[in-house]
Amino acid sequence: MLPPRLLAAALVLLPFLSASAAEPVLLLRAARVFDGVGEVRTGVSVLVRGGRIAEVGEQVAAPPGAEVIELGDATLLPGLIDAHTHLALHAGDYDQQVLRETPELRTIHAVVSARKTLEAGVTTVRDLGNEAAGFADLALRDAVAQGLVPGPRVLAAIRPVTSSGAYGLTGYSPYLALPPLASSADGVGEVRREVRRLLSQGADVVKIYLESYEKKQPREDLLTGAMNYSREELAALVEEAHRGQVKVAAHTYSDQAAQLALEVGVDSIEHGLYLSEATFRRMAKQGVVYVPTLLVYELWRDGALFGGVTPQKKQQLASTCAEHSRSLKRALASGVKIAFGSDTFELPGTNPRELELLVRDGMKPLDALRAGTSVAAGLLGLEQVTGTLRPGLAADLLAVRGDPRRDMAALREVLLVVKGGVVQVDARRRPPPAP
Fold first, then answer.
1. What angle do CA 93, 97, 102 make, to 5 degrees?
2. Nearest CA to 268 among 319, 330, 206, 189?
3. Tens digits of per-residue pLDDT, 402-434?
4. CATH T-level fold of 20-78+389-426
5. Of 3.40.50.1110, 3.40.50.720, 3.30.420.480, 3.20.20.140, which CATH number belongs to 80-379?
6. pTM for this structure?
């Protein structure tokens, strides 16, 4: 034990020592800097103090004691924001994990997926449900926030809302009691009650399934399904969610479902496989964001998900992917806001490849980077927290080798990931891959 005099001195110094320890200072320099909104700039440095961006400019000097990080021929940008993930879903047989794995085991899978996602440069995600995984997303969200495990900042939906008989495991005897993949709620009263229950449990967003091909598939060549809700039920859900100050993400494939979602005022359309130009124009007018999730359907088509596909399913998915790409082109022509969402639940860490597909299908590279930073932050309601390199915001940063404007695959070459001012990944000493 310290003598009283030394103890008193230590107590006097403690606040200063704590403040110093709590406020690490970093100065980052890279050949190119993208702030999430404007053009790429050169000769710019970013100063980080106490976990927040302190200054961005051309004449930023390193304060005494600052750690200077020289990134060389790299591009520095805000940490990516993936607006559509499922961190507790993992690779392998889907029915196996739903039927035989405990939510506790799947939470551990989520921890591993969160780390891989962060290492890919994604510093914030919106997790839209994990099919019978209990409160895995809440546990992960809170564990990351408390610093118990590494991972991106998480906004959690807990479980989606749908009607009875929709979005469930198929092919089993009706006598079996199967784990529910979503919250079943029928009628205006039940829908309101379920939204209130989700909010009381801590949901940051409400997800709604507007249609379900598991219930009824009208066409063999498309992934469209029967509509799950009446307009009155959907209007009650959106009203209740907005009253609780959370947004509504609408899982939507068909144009009919998207039009209904727009009538009741949802905040985002997820997937939107078969949407018309008129629907996208309406979305643009109403400020509804499009989250296309191109990558997951192409991975599914190619047999990289769900343990492979039958020839019949592959043909269906091939036509779906082609129409999905055409939908994106119609979206680009409409002026609707587009946000990055990967939906790559079986391949965590591949999330940024979604941005490559957006560019492949016609989006300008800088617009794709905006979709993954400032636009996604706006959709999640986090524009005052992250998504841009603006003084006062969280120091969520990603540095990649090369220039994504020339090749979006540069996002695969992660050099540095910083989240909340703390370096999470530092691969500067790793040699570049062989040509």
1. 165
2. 206
3. 999 999 999 999 999 999 999 999 998 655 555
4. Urease, subunit C; domain 1 (2.30.40)
5. 3.20.20.140
6. 0.92
